[in-house]
Amino acid sequence: MTVLYDRVALIGLGLIAGSMAHAIRDAGLATEVVGHARSAETRDIAREIHLCDRIADTAAEAVAGADLIVLAVPVGAMGAVAAEIAPHLKPGATVTDVGSVKQSVIDAVAPHIPDGVHFIPGHPLAGTEHSGPRSGFAGLFRNRWWLLTPLPDSDPDAVARLSDLVRAMGAKSDTMEAGHHDLVLAVTSHAPHLIAYTMVGVADHLRRVTDEEVIQYSAAGFRDFTRIAASDPTMWRDVFLHNKDATLDILGRFTEELFVLQRAIRMGDGQQLHDYFTRTRAIRRGIIEAGQDTAAPDFGRVATSAP
Ligand SMILES: NC(=O)C1=CN([C@@H]2O[C@H](COP(=O)(O)OP(=O)(O)OC[C@H]3O[C@@H](n4cnc5c(N)ncnc54)[C@H](O)[C@@H]3O)[C@@H](O)[C@H]2O)C=CC1
Ligand SMILES: O=C(O)C(=O)Cc1ccc(O)cc1
């Protein structure tokens, strides 16, 4: 495989950066992968499992001389990390991020990026409920979308090279305007996560539902909710705080629809329920036919350990 960047620096060594480290190193897409994490404990684990070619103790040391810098920290931490690394970036380098929200990351990061350094925000639509340096695996991005949200003045060659990298890691790449990305993701990912968190919270209020025996017999729907609701609390807190307007818009629409269905149940309107479920079934079948089913937990993973 071709080397696409000489030195890649990964900042934040969790699920996404860890998976990138595996995918890049397995496919020989960089000469050297350097990693940095804020906590000494994470850096120690990363060294122990040989996640990267080198683990740097500071973000500045990690990005020095790097051709591609990937910010893979929670969305709310992106701006501070960008400010920390900015003086140490090599002219001509590309900075990207993997945050689940795009406009707020652009607002927080872009002001710190020096002239002559490319900033191309991105978001892999791939993940699991696991986090931390042990959770990554090379196959995470295989056949998943990786959206890039370049700025109007982004250099097309730098965008093309980053797009080559994400494709070489097995993903499908596309570009999108950041605000549109945030609305689309509010519908397809952020609101569904909040609903899952809420549903598990509701069940927890009915204490008996979470008794082991009941969990054992719980239907697949609730089990899927509990998987999603086990996702990293810091990451998801930041997603909702930084995609506030779009998420609240979608939740408002969700509540209206919920009331429609609630009323149909109360009124015994079977026809309305049947029509509604027929429409939603067609949507699911459309997703499957388009090869976009990302719900199945089989990510072709090679390692299943979580910290
Ligand atoms: N987990 C998922 O399913 C997906 C996550 N993302 C995005 O990727 C980014 C990283 O997520 P994961 O890899 O899942 O997270 P993770 O929780 O597995 O790892 C995050 C890393 O960031 C570090 N970190 C946390 N707070 C920090 C701070 N204030 N300053 C510096 N470093 C800090 C942690 O020590 C850890 O090394 C997030 O922005 C998230 O929105 C994108 C797609 C999927
Ligand atoms: O685990 C799941 O079901 C996911 O939905 C993974 C995921 C989480 C956050 C993202 O920004 C993208 C993908």
From TrEMBL:
<dbReference type="InterPro" id="IPR003099">
    <property type="entry name" value="Prephen_DH"/>
</dbReference>
<dbReference type="GO" id="GO:0070403">
    <property type="term" value="F:NAD+ binding"/>
</dbReference>
<keyword id="KW-0520">NAD</keyword>
<keyword id="KW-0827">Tyrosine biosynthesis</keyword>
<dbReference type="InterPro" id="IPR046825">
    <property type="entry name" value="PDH_C"/>
</dbReference>
<dbReference type="InterPro" id="IPR036291">
    <property type="entry name" value="NAD(P)-bd_dom_sf"/>
</dbReference>
<dbReference type="GO" id="GO:0006571">
    <property type="term" value="P:tyrosine biosynthetic process"/>
</dbReference>
<protein>
    <recommendedName>
        <fullName>prephenate dehydrogenase</fullName>
        <ecNumber>1.3.1.12</ecNumber>
    </recommendedName>
</protein>
<keyword id="KW-0560">Oxidoreductase</keyword>
<dbReference type="InterPro" id="IPR008927">
    <property type="entry name" value="6-PGluconate_DH-like_C_sf"/>
</dbReference>
<dbReference type="InterPro" id="IPR046826">
    <property type="entry name" value="PDH_N"/>
</dbReference>
<keyword id="KW-0057">Aromatic amino acid biosynthesis</keyword>
<dbReference type="Pfam" id="PF20463">
    <property type="entry name" value="PDH_C"/>
</dbReference>
<keyword id="KW-0028">Amino-acid biosynthesis</keyword>
<comment type="similarity">
    <text>Belongs to the prephenate/arogenate dehydrogenase family.</text>
</comment>
<comment type="pathway">
    <text>Amino-acid biosynthesis; L-tyrosine biosynthesis; (4-hydroxyphenyl)pyruvate from prephenate (NAD(+) route): step 1/1.</text>
</comment>
<dbReference type="Pfam" id="PF02153">
    <property type="entry name" value="PDH_N"/>
</dbReference>
<dbReference type="InterPro" id="IPR050812">
    <property type="entry name" value="Preph/Arog_dehydrog"/>
</dbReference>
<dbReference type="GO" id="GO:0004665">
    <property type="term" value="F:prephenate dehydrogenase (NADP+) activity"/>
</dbReference>
<dbReference type="GO" id="GO:0008977">
    <property type="term" value="F:prephenate dehydrogenase (NAD+) activity"/>
</dbReference>
<feature type="domain" description="Prephenate/arogenate dehydrogenase">
    <location>
        <begin position="6"/>
        <end position="295"/>
    </location>
</feature>
